[in-house]
Specification:
By secondary structure, this protein is α/β, with parallel strands linked by helices. The protein is built from 24 helices and 16 strands.
């Protein structure tokens, strides 16, 4: 099994790299329309990655075993042929081998858990660890499918090019559109600029409703109201005070006051500058009476001159360049609010905007699909807004998005299950929305893995070190897999968008994702545990900040980074070796991500902006902040205690109850000596003491057949305190013990390569008094004595 896992992972890495190199950059992610690779070509493609991986592994593993594993791996790729008919051959190979590698790994770890002979809390922790590894595998697949689908597809069934949506009907027959512009404490000059661009739309039948929601400063409202009064043929201004429902409430009010002739409703944020051809290029999609909404990408302006803003831009662009096109092909695109249009009759049919959800736009699209409607995502953007101009505003925006995703999952999870028949969602739509909601847990999963690595380093430094052996699979596969997923996502943005982006931009986007990990994890937990919260409006700016102030503002990230750095340093100093170096390396990406939070805060405020944007950045500190209904929710505290208990159950630092067997051994090597033939003479010779698994001297016996050195491997038994001077003997339990204990153990023999007498160490019962030996990280732990060759 271990050989199959290693071969699958190596083949997956080769196939993914080849896919990314061969995939051409394509603007918008979906511009090619041609013939996909034939079934035969796609069937053979995985072999191009399996063969070189097999050649590499034959250096260490037996040839016939490696060839058998290669055949099994290639056969495992065949079932995906019907699902990858639109893809290139490299895309099929990369995806199929990714699935095969993950399945091989989780199967091997499940087999180890079943056969490891652990019990009690150790067994419970092992199964929880396995579930975390399965979750990491699912997360890897959810992002991997999007990347392979968008970059590898050459034929699209649902793609609607913008030029194809323009209707050829006369102007008098075009549907009337009511454009709703919600606003809250927006700078008047910014909002007026948005309205001015809306007045320039090349469309005959539309109106614009400006709905100011609970702005408490009359000076902000008066200029906008005067501008609307000067253009009564298009613009209408409504000011709401003490209005419930926040943005959803404002949009419901606007719908009630919409012109009765309007068939479509469009939403535009207060900071967007819309292109004149936006409506003409999108309303044609509604010629299909089943279409309820159309969403165009949300784009941004004033970002190319700053490295921080460039990185932020590409971190945003992933969703609309990769996730949305892939979801749209399955009919599961979401309505993103601004720059989107919705059919008014469909909106009324499902009861309008829900005011309980802080991401009302995404929730609306799910309810529309549940009611039997459909939606489309278009590739081309027709408006440019402003990204959050401070990192604090970015964190609050991301918190709101994630919190809303958790609200949607809590409300609709039953309808997203594969066997649900309560709505008209198709299987692909259920999967798309379920995976989209689960993807929010990626940062929380990464945070849990970071805690596990910290606990393992701490146990390695001051405990028994057995946690590292229990968690070797996690440390060597699951956590790096999450890091690789992030890197693949960054590369996918560059490939799919096809704009002027370099590696520095991609790495910067990846750093921003890492630095937002803590706030997204917090939003996941609070969104699941807390019943509701006040709407989080997205502040775009705040006052100037120094490095010290930035670290104080992001105190949680700094605390995590400090803890991680201290634990890593302790492991390196107190238990030097390549194991501690490897663990510290796994901890480096999250620590750097946490440290990047205050760095991004300072970088955002040092961006040179035009005067209007600089005023907006300096004056948005008064904007709202999400706050819970209770100061310290009991559910959140219970969740934190649950995480601590989970870590203790998985790691059990300082424990000496190591598993007695391992089903996931290290990579097999070629046998250099034949096993002793039946009837071979075996003689027992005394040996000198040798260091046991814990680093203490231990006594042992060894069995040597005539003409062949072998190792006598007894089943583990409890022993008395080892002696450092006496000849090697088998330790037996004290005769004064009243409980029944074994007095002898079964003996087996195994060949070794050494020519001298091997020694076998017995496991002591007393705690180790010296540093533990470095465990083999390539396999799950075992307390079977390890042969020591002279």
């Amino acid at each position: 099994m271990s050989l199959l896992v290693v071969l699958a992972v190596a083949s997956c890495a080769i196939a993914t790299l080849a896919f990314l190199v061969l995939s051409r950059s394509r603007s918008g992610g979906r511009t090619r329309h041609g013939r996909a690779a034939s079934a035969l070509t796609r069937a053979v493609a995985p072999a191009a990655a399996i063969v070189p991986a097999t050649v590499l592994l034959t250096v260490w593993a037996p040839l016939h075993d490696t060839l058998a594993a290669a055949a099994v791996l290639w056969l495992a790729c065949l079932p995906w042929l019907p699902r990858t008919g639109r893809w290139t051959a490299p895309a099929h190979a990369g995806w199929a081998l990714t699935v095969a590698a993950g399945l091989a790994y989780v199967t091997a770890m499940a087999h180890w858990t079943v056969t490891s002979d652990v019990g009690g809390l150790a067994l419970a922790g092992a199964w929880v660890l396995w579930l975390l590894e399965v979750a990491a595998f699912v997360m890897l697949l959810s992002y991997g499918w999007e990347v392979f689908d968008v970059l590898g597809s050459v034929r699209w069934h649902r793609r609607r090019a913008p030029v194809q949506t323009v209707t050829a009907t006369p102007h008098a027959e075009l549907p009337m559109v009511s454009i709703h512009v919600p606003s809250h404490n927006e700078p008047p000059e910014l909002l007026i600029e948005t309205l001015q661009r809306l007045l320039e739309l090349d469309y005959p039948a539309y109106e614009v409703l400006v709905v100011d929601n609970n702005t408490d400063d009359d000076a902000l409202c008066a200029p906008v109201e005067a501008f609307c009064a000067a253009h009564p043929e298009r613009l209408r201004f409504h000011r709401l005070l003490d209005w419930p429902g926040f943005k959803s409430g404002a949009l419901n009010y606007a719908e009630e006051h919409t012109d009765p002739r309007a068939e479509l409703i469009a939403v535009v944020d207060a900071d967007y500058q819309v292109e004149p051809g936006w409506l003409r290029a999108t309303v044609g999609a509604f010629d299909d009476p089943r279409v309820a909404f159309v969403q165009t990408p949300q784009d941004y302006r004033a970002w190319s001159h700053s490295q921080y803003l460039r990185s932020l831009y590409y971190s945003y662009d992933y969703f609309f360049a990769v996730s949305q096109p892939s979801r749209d092909e399955r009919g599961a695109a979401i309505f993103g609010g601004t720059m989107g249009l919705v059919r008014r009759s469909a909106l009324r049919d499902i009861g309008g905007w829900d005011e309980w959800c802080v991401t009302e736009d995404a929730e609306l699209s799910l309810r529309l699909l549940q009611a039997g409607w459909s939606g489309h995502h278009l590739d081309q953007s027709y408006g440019h807004g402003i990204m959050p101009l401070t990192f604090e505003a970015l964190k609050r925006q991301r918190f709101r998005w994630c919190f809303g995703g958790m609200q949607i999952l809590k409300r609709h999870w039953r309808t997203l299950l594969p066997w649900s028949r309560s709505t008209q969602l198709t299987a692909s739509q259920r999967l798309g929305y379920l995976v989209g909601g689960v993807q929010w847990f990626g940062d929380l999963l990464g945070l849990l893995f970071s805690f596990v690595v910290m606990a393992s380093l701490l146990d390695l430094a001051v405990g028994g070190g057995l946690a590292v052996r229990r968690l070797s699979g996690l440390l060597l596969f699951a956590a790096p897999a999450l890091i690789v997923v992030g890197l693949v996502r960054a590369v996918a943005v560059l490939k799919a968008v096809g704009r002027d982006a370099g590696w520095r931009d991609a790495l910067g986007a990846f750093a921003i994702w890492l630095s937002l990990g803590w706030v997204v994890s917090l939003a996941c937990v609070r969104g699941l545990l807390e019943p509701q919260g006040v709407f989080l409006r997205t502040p775009k700016t705040r006052g100037d900040v120094s490095w010290l102030q930035a670290m104080r503002v992001h105190w949680a990230e700094m605390a995590l980074a400090t803890l991680g750095a201290v634990v890593a340093l302790a492991g390196l100093v107190l238990h030097p070796g390549w194991v501690s170096v490897g663990l510290a390396a796994l901890l480096a990406p999250p620590v750097l991500g946490w440290l990047a939070a205050p760095a991004h805060s300072v970088a955002a405020l040092r961006v040179d902006l035009p005067a209007s944007l600089r005023r907006r950045r300096d004056g948005e500190g008064a904007r709202g902040w999400w706050r819970p209904r209770t100061a310290v929710p009991v559910a959140s505290l219970a969740g934190a205690l649950g995480v601590v208990a989970l870590l203790l159950g998985i790691v059990q630092p300082g424990s000496h109850d190591a598993p007695r067997s391992s089903a996931a051994p290290s990579l097999p090597r070629r046998a250099e000596h034949p096993a002793p033939h039946a009837g071979a003479h075996v003689r027992t010779v005394p040996t000198t003491p040798s260091a046991g698994p814990s680093g203490n001297p231990a006594t042992s016996t060894s069995s040597v057949p005539a003409g062949q050195a072998t190792t006598q491997v007894p089943a583990p038994v409890r022993t008395a305190a080892p002696s450092t001077t006496a000849p090697a003997t088998v330790s037996r339990p004290s005769t004064s013990s009243t409980s029944p204990t074994p007095t002898a153990s079964a003996v087996t023999t195994a060949p070794t390569r050494g020519t001298g007498s091997p020694t076998v160490t017995a496991r002591p019962t007393s705690p180790p008094s010296s540093p533990t030996a470095t465990p083999d990280p390539s396999r799950r732990p075992t307390d079977r004595p390890t042969p020591t060759h002279r």
